[in-house]
Amino acid sequence: MDFRLVLIELAEKIGLLATAGLFTVMVKPLRGRLLGVGRPRDRVVAVIFGVALSLWGAKLGQVWLGYHVNIRAIGVLIAAILGGSRAGATAGLLAGLFYVFRVEPDAGVWGVLSSVLDGLIAGLIVERLPRAFVGWRALPTALGVQVAEGILVLSAELISGSPNPNLHAWPAIFVQALGSAAGLTLFVLVARLVLSREEAAVQLVEARAAADAFALSALRSRLEPHFLFNALNTLRATIRKDPERARALVDNLADLYRYLLNHPEDARLAEEVEHACSYLAIEEARLEPGRLEVKLEIEPEAGEAEVPALLLQPLVENAVKHGVAAHDGPGQVLMRAERVGSTLRIAVENHHQGRHLGAPSRGSGIALATLRERLAKRFGDRASLELQPLPDGMCACVEMPWPGVSDAKTIDTGQRTPGGEP
Length: 422
Fold this sequence. Notes:
alpha+beta; six-stranded mixed beta sheet; Heat Shock Protein 90; rod-shaped; Arp2/3 complex 21 kDa subunit ARPC3; 10 strands; two-stranded antiparallel sheet; 14 helices; single chain
C-alpha cells in the first residue's frame, strides 16, 4: 500500500480522537478520572472506554511493507492515563487478544504482550509522574512508552529464539508508534482544553457571585451603624411621648433587621417594598410630624417579581436623606413598579417643599455606585440605574430584564403613612 495513503488513513482516525476527548469530559466517571478525583470503581469505565477505542483502532488498520499498521495502542494508553497501571494492563490484554484472534493471527503471543506492556508502562509513568501525559509532554512520553515496549518485546523474542519477522518493516512500525503518540496527544489536549474552559467559566461565575455577596455585605454594614444609632434615639424619645407608637416602631425595627439578616440573595419586590416601608416608618418618626408621606404604586404582577435583595434600600435612603430630610417642608417618597414588555421598571421618587437646610453630607454616591455595580454584574448592559431630576425632587429609576415570579401574596397599593394602615 502507498505510504501516503497510510498517512491519510492515520490522520483521519487520529482526528476522530478529538471527539473521544469531548466524550471523556462529558461522561462523569471518565471526567473524574481525568481530573484525578474519580472513584476506584471508575477504573472499570476507563478500561471499557480504552478497550473500545483499541478495538476501533485495530479493526481499521492498513497493511504497509507487510506489516499491519494500526493505532490500537491509543486506547490502551488512554485507559492507563485514566485508570493507572492495572487498568492499562487489563485494557492491553483485552485489546491484544482481540487483535490476535480477530484481526492479525500472525502476531501471536507477541501481539498480546506488546499491548499489555504499553498499558503497564504508561500506567506506571502516570502513577509516578502524573504530569508526563499533560499537554504536549504526552507526545514524547507516549512515543517513549512504545519504544520501551518494542525493546522489551524484541528482547523477549531473542531470548525465546523466535525472532520477529516484521523487523524489516521498521518504518511502518515507527509510523504506527508516531501516529499513536500523536493521536493520544490530540485526545489529551482536547480534553484538557474543554476542562480548562469549563473551569474558567465556573471561576468567573463564582467571582461574580462573591463580588455581589461582598457588595451586599457592604450595604448591610453601611446601614447598620449609623441608622441603628438614630433609630434607638428616636425610639427613646417616642417612648415618653407615645408608648403605642413606640411599640409599632420596635416592630418596624425588628422587621427591618430580620430582613437584613435572613433574606436570600433574591427577594420578591413586594418584600423589598415592605422592608423599605419599615425603614421609612422609623425615618418618619425621626422627623417632625407630617414631614414624610409614603405612597405606593406597585402593579400586582410587578410585586411578585424576583429582584436582587436590598435593591430599594439605598434608593429610599437617598430619597429621605437628600430629598425630604434636606428641606424644612413636608415631603413624599413614592415607590412605583410596573412591567413594560420584557422589562421591570422600578422608580423611587422624592418630592419636597420648603427651603434647603444645607449641603448634603459627602459620600452620598457610594450606595448608588454599589447598586449599579451589582446590577451590572448580574445583568450586564440589560439593566440600568438613572437619576432623573423632577421639578420638586428627584427620581431614581431602575430597569432590568423581567425576571421569574413566585407564587406568593401581593401587596396593597395606594397611599399610606409609614407604620400605619393604607
